[in-house]
Amino acid sequence: MSRTKGDEEEYWNSSKFKAFTFDDEDDELSQLKESKRAVNSLRDFVDDGDDDDDLERVNWSGEPVGSISWTIKETAGNSGPTQEGREPKNRNSFSYGQLPKPTSTYSLSSFFKALSDTPAKSYAPELGRPKGEYRDYSNDWSLCDTVRRLRKGKVCSLERFRSLQDKLQLLEEAVSVHDGNVITAVLIFLKRTLSKEILFRELEVRQVALRHLIHFLKEIGDQKLLLELFRFLDRTEELALSHYREHLTIQDPDKRKEFLKTCVGLPFSAEDTAHIQDHYTLLERQIIIEANDRHLESAGQTEIFRKHPRKASILNMPLVTTLFYACFYHYSEPEGTFSSPINLKKTFKIPDKQYVLTALAARAKLRAWHDVDALFTTKNWLGYTKKRAPIGFHRVVEILHKNNAPVQILQEYVNLVEDVDMKLNLATKFKCHDVVIDTCRDLKDRQQLMAYRGKVDKGSAEEEKIDTILSSPQIRWKN
Amino acid sequence: MAFHLRPDAPELPDFSMLKRLARDQLIYLLEQLPGKKDLFIEADLMSPLDRIASVSILKQHEVDKLYKVEINKPVLSSSEQLCFLVRPRIKNMRYIAHLVNTDKLAGRTRKYKVIFSPQKFYACEMVLEEEGIYGDVSCDEWAFSLLPLDVDLLSMELPEFFRDYFLEGDQRWINTVAQALHLLSTLYGSFPNCYGIGRCAKMSYELWRTLEEEEEGETKSRRPEIGHIFFLDRDMDFVTALCSQVVYEGLVDDTFRIKCGSVDFGPEVTSSDKSLKVLLNAEDKVFSEIRNEHFSNVFGFLSQKARNLQAQYDRRRGMDIKQMKNFVSQELKGLKQEHRLLSLHIGACESIMKKKTKQDFQELIKTEHGLLEGFSLRESTSYIEEHIDRQVSPIESLRLMCLLSITENGLIPKDYRSLKTQYLQSYGPEHLLTFSNLRRAGLLTEQAPGDTLTAMESKVSKLVTDKAAGKITDAFSSLAKRSNFRAISKKLNLDYKAELTLAQRQPFAL
What ipTM was assigned to the predicted interfaces of this complex? Predict the structure, then answer.
């Protein structure tokens, strides 16, 4: 405002302007003083930001106002009695220095009328909103009602539950209702209004609420508070797992590797620590192999990469897949290299069974039957070779069949199956005629052999063989 | 499902009302945002929405384009009004907030409406407030809680329930369950007899009673159409859910995935170059006859039916004009329909057989039986070990391990360690987290010393004889979880031998 106090006096005391008329017979000067005060207070209202709400709550009491903010506070809850008569938008027409014209909606006469009408120390009565609605916005609901309102999804401020006892009672009531949404709502409020030490301490003995808080923190991703909570509760394993879980969000392999390194020292159980260590070592290995192989592949000199281009990166693959990859692309490498399968086996203590299975699958895919052979051939102390498998030869046969191994190879391995029934089944399934014939002969089972005769090709060598055996007088058939 | 009608059974309530209600509610909500709008739907809600309101209905109410909510993918809609139909999850809130804030930064204002299904959570409101968009979006609730999948099957279509409650202990959906029950009792009369078992059952029941008491006097006089209600917590019986399915409907689900009562059959089944979405319920006459049959019976049954159908077609050879006219007008349509369904199901059977033979299904069933009956434990364990080594399927390997754990009251520590190590080696080291979750949920645990079979068995058999009928007892539920599966099945006389003989007929051998 540009006018000073001096100007005001001049303004009000100059005769150029008409004085206001009052209904009562008060002394003119004191009336003017009243009106001046009132207008001053109004001016402050007008200038006090563009806050309609404040204006709406103006109290028109004639009480001498100590300060504007006090007046505003006092009238904060009331709906203004002259609400209907005023339009906040038009207050601009009521700028200081201008007498309001009679057409202005801010009719000053009505303004002062109200002033003089109301007794000195009273406030304007509450008008406007019905009592129920008013209560809707206050916080007078009881504990049970508050929780009921929360359950129904209604707007409900929990601010009035300020004492710790009130807060805990609220929480207990929420828990007794069983609705997780309500429990979480109360927890959100508690999290905001309690220090975390107090919150943790109280939740430590309230399992249901504690579970809800943990789930809530997980969902909003407040990792920091979650870890602090676990630390407070001394839940070391969950702390470790929660920290470890973060690695899934890190995409860059090197960064992930570094992160895993930090996980190794976490309070896992002894076995889990070993698993984490393996995870780190594996990723470290994979990064090296990946870089190397990508280089080899792009150089285009290595045959295996030319014949079987890689379909995917080896990063973040499980150990067995990595082993398969190594058996596929790096089978003949010496133990010293990072990508050698033997090296992987030793580093990660892969059991024989798993190793043989994987190597077999890889070599069979490449149709490297000699390698397959070598896998199972062992030399005993006399120098004789013998075939042994830690996985059961029926498995070997299946894997070979899956990779379309030639019948001779299949036959060789079917023969090695120890269980006779299984041997017969497999031989029949995979059409290893010789094996079937030989087995039937060994079992002295004529019926089966005759039945099988119908399955072989007419005029084939197998048919002849069957006929020879059937007609052999030396065999004592059992059926 | 779809029980065979007994002559004295009462009529089933008309559950189609639930669908109509849900649809009307959704339409009402859509109309709150008049004018053209684009609708973003969360993936989980697409199938249920399909069953309730088809695309044409949505279009009738000024829905222009339909999009799927895909986190981390840019939004391509250019409409001025966007509507989101989502579950009340924080990640959805962040998705919407990102969209709105991006618009704000670009100086673009659109109208946004979020429809929460089935209800809004306070945590979601908190996030909307945090992200500064609380005032920019209007929020509504689409309280669709029950979807009729078949004449006698209602589903809440809330797959996250299991993880939220049984793993995390979050009771957020209990109110939803209570609301669903309340809806049922309002529409079909209050249920006079209630039984239950399990902690969640108890809480749902209590919350539901609270709801009912709050709204007294509305349906008191109605004659109830539903007489009994049983509340069962899933964790009372994990075994059933973990066993492989061997009836036709189960195998269709296994192979093709039945979503909300319908399944997508690809070209290899439809024998054409198109895929077909088929509704599988009691209305499909062929399906309703074979759905609960053991798979070994199904193929024979279908072949027989095909032959009958052919015979009926052939009848027309000996017909005169009048008979032919009759035939064409009355029977041909039905026959054609049956023929179409038959060929679909035969195609499905073939696909299933092919897949299962490849997977060595016979061995799997045999192992499961061993676990259920409690014999050949070492063989079963080594089968599982091999299953893991061969990297057959991460889910199936876990399923078997959990079955072993529950039937044996936990794995012996040596087995637990070695199977876990092998699993991590075969399927990835990050599954350390999977094992921790499964342990927390009680699905895959380690035997503590002293949890020997005999001790548990005697404890439980005593408890099972206490008939606390009609009462929901916490004690039973907590012990039942840890109790010996074998003791219970003995008491309840559960017999797996019938299953065993059917399986031994080798339906999946070539």
Answer: 0.87
